[in-house]
Design brief:
seven-stranded mixed beta sheet
Length: 811
Amino acid sequence: MFQDLKFGLKLLAKHKGFTIAALLTLALCIGANTAIFTVLDSVVLRGLPFPAPDRLVTLYNLYPGVGVTDRGANGVPDYLDRRKMTDVFREVALMRQISYDVGPAGSPQRVNAESVTPSFFRMLQVSPLVGRAFTEQEGTIGNEKVAILSEGLWNEMYGHDSGAIGRDIRLSGVPHRIVGVMPQRLGSINNEVRLWVPAAFTAQEMSDDQRHSNSWGMMARLQPGVSIAIAKQHIDALNRANLDRFPKYREVIIAARFQTAVASLRDEMVRDIRQTLYVLQAAVGLVLLIGCVNLANLMLVRSNVRMKELAIRYSLGARRWRLGRQVLTESLTLAVGGGALGALVAVAGVRLLALLGTDQLPRGGSIHVDLRVLAFTAATAIVTGLVFGSVPMVHILRRDLNEVFRGNERGGTAGQHALWIRSALVVSQVALAFVLLIGSGLLTLTFLRLLNVDPGFRPESVVTAQISLPYSRYHEDTRARTFFSTVLDKLRNTPGVLGAGAASFLPFGGNDNESAIAIVGQDLRPGEAPPVPAWNNIDAGYIPAMGIRLLAGRNFTEQDNEKAPRVMLIDEYMAKRYFPKGNAIGSQIRHGMDKESDICTIVGIVANVKSMDLSGHNPPGEIYFPYAQHVPNTMHLVVRVRGDDPAAIASIRRQVLAADPELAMFDAKTMTERIASSLLNQRAAMALCLTFGALALLLSAVGIYGVLAYTVTQRTREFGIRVALGAGARDVIGMVVGNGLRMAALGLALGAVGAFLLTRFMAAMLYGVKPADPGVFAVVAVILALVAVTASLIPSIRAVRIRPSTALRYE
């Protein structure tokens, strides 16, 4: 074996052009596969960095009867029930993302935090780096002013000083005692969270009146031996028992088809990205297959060129398997070298992928090339070498080496057999490229369709930012109203500002608030579920600042304040769905299901707004309340500026700090950036598939050219005779190009069948386009045909230039 390796290295060094081309092909193909696998492995395949991660589950309530089917949340009574009334969980924990202003007045920063029950860290089985976790006592009202820092925040604020334990940190002006520091791996669940505070519930929050008031996430650790299916059965039984124990909204809840999902925590974290990553891995795998085919063709040509050498060695006593092993050793040597270069390409590729947003994926901060990834690279390289080396090896093993000395190798049947093998490999290349390009075309068309979706507002030149008023200083509605009114008035008078408004929830802001309502005068029929639209609190300037169309009635005014009658706006969906006779204006809606809830009069109808997803996965309807009548402490500022003013965000921040120097403005983005962020997965998948498709197209073109160039060389004498007998350039070109088109046509036919079968698995990733879209199939077929023609023209021109005298001396 060592002798084979030494001889193989000598041959590869001698034929530098072939070696460099092969190494570059392998480096690109293996490197691309390794880069995508690095992301797939870090995000999807690896377990969470906690003990027994397969025992961790997440739970959330669903109401499919009213359209609430996507990751609902949980209420505090759910937590108490599932903790005390079931025995399938070792620990149950609630968590809710919040944020605090931290830092000195005039330059505070917003820090993302999480309010968690003390059971949270026990559930994950994570111990602090220093200090301790929360005690059960600290999860009660009056004892909750403590905090645990993340390792990153601890280093940033205290330089890893263990003396920080016991000190106070001011969170939105309220002192909290630091009791511990958690390790960095806790960020694998949510890398934005930088500190934790204990959740403490009031008697009202724990009461049965708060059932189905869902605003908390829930995680749990299963007991040993308990499966997710068993846990689901116990939760379903508990839900049925609660319907009997608390019948207040029994009929409504049944009509909403209330249920609780129990899912693996890891699977739920990657649910939105898993399919995209698998599709990308399959796409780059096709590129590797095409690269293998190209290398198999090159190796086959080399084996034919070396046939006399191999025949001589055979005649001197070398066995066939020994000759085949020599060729396979060369292939594996190339593959190992290509794999080593591919690892370097992968490191650069992972950094490039971060520019496409991979660092924003779950556990995206942990994506890097490690020993596990390098093992994948090595395995890929070895398998690749075996694949493309097996073709010439089998060819040698099946070849009658004695005929090398007896006949004309250029025109013999053995040469024709090799040519058939090479042609078949090219056909497979074209087929694989067709499948990959179809997938790229479908994703590209999806992305273009999404860009043309009307979001229901005009996002250009709109700047947004979020402000959260601390309850300790703004517990009175009057103070909150005054603050927002002051800031908005100053913004509207700022040069370059065309309009300003505020809203509690912003389209593509990452969250919303859905809740049931009752329409006055429209009693629910037996089994009918109530409307559950998104709720939003806005000021009078929000609708014009966002460019949302007012379709009927009026917008809010400054007179719709806390002293005025309760009013509301509804969107077009709500108007058509619940007021089909066109009588929405003047109708009334109860602000909730309780008969004691406020009654609001509809004064206007606005256009539907995409709030979460351009592809249509949005809440069913939206209603708007004047913020002066329903004052939230957290609001988004919306400012429409003239043109794209780069100083707009700084101007907004100055007005906020002028109103309250201790407040931090955060989540500052333009609406265009928010929409672009919502398309991150689609854009990345499209860009990568197009890149892989372009590489596949190039490799296919090289494959077609190589086969036809080899054919022209084999048929040199024939072409010379044809030219001598009067064949024109058009005839010769037609023969060569026709051969290339026949290979391409067969590849297209096979690829069309494969694409038709495989693209069905992409249906969930598509919008406004069918998996078997005829337009995409036609465009890709034309592109591949043009590439085939182009690749065929070069060797055909060479054939035309053959002189008859040269051809007759060729043998």
